[in-house]
Write a structure and sequence with these properties.
alpha+beta; 3-stranded antiparallel sheet; 1 helix
């Protein structure tokens, strides 16, 4: 259950970052994307019981309105 929660938090964070980056530019881009996660780790911080840091490694493919495709 805890791993599933960490995975969900990582995915939501990644999507939020991509949304923020797209809103920061002067040009509005629209795209669809795929996302895959290769590796997820959680690391105990040690200052407070149960305090962890999640790290994820992954990537995906973005499909833009104009037909261009990019990897990330």
């Amino acid at each position: 259950m805890r791993t599933k929660l960490c995975f969900t938090v990582v995915v939501v964070t990644v999507l939020a970052v991509f949304a923020a980056v797209s809103l920061a530019g002067a040009e509005t881009l629209k795209w669809r994307q795929t996302l895959y996660v290769n590796k997820v780790e959680r690391i105990e911080v040690g200052d407070v019981p149960g305090h962890i840091v999640g790290v994820a490694e992954g990537g995906g493919v973005a499909f833009f309105e104009n037909g261009e495709v990019a990897t990330y």
